[in-house]
Amino acid sequence: MAELAYRTDRRIAAGEYIDLLGRSTLGARRPIDRPDVIAGALEGSDVVVTAWDGPLLVGAARAITDFHLHCYLADLCVDESYQRQGIGLELQRVLRSLLGPLCKLKLSAAPAAAEYYPRVGYERNDRAWELPPGRPLA
């Protein structure tokens, strides 16, 4: 493996992202059979940090942020054959370098990744809430 390149200057196509999701554990929790939804998610993202091994996309961090107070890390995915090499951590470092000094990085962890985030510095927040799709507000 050559030295990886981390980029923030190249938007990726939905097909490229779907391919990466399929090679990562995140593919099981994203609608990879709906390229229109994935394309919309990419288009609506404020930041997409990517990791490349030559021409191969091996990792991505997709975020929605105001850059000053809050940044939601919507997706963090690394090709399974490239995991445990620090790629996910470096994607987060690059993302964080783009944020202001008071900006909090927030995420919802997949069950399999729940032990990872405290090890790299995240704190649990038990006050987070979500409204599932289709559920009306009372």
UniProtKB/TrEMBL annotation:
One of its GO terms (molecular function) is acyltransferase activity. Residues 4-138 form the N-acetyltransferase domain. SUPFAM superfamilies: Acyl-CoA N-acyltransferases (Nat) (SSF55729). It is an enzyme of class 2 (transferase). Its EC number is 2.3.1.-. Transmembrane segments: none annotated. Signal peptide: none annotated. Keywords: Acyltransferase, Transferase. Pfam families: Acetyltransf_10. This is GNAT family N-acetyltransferase.
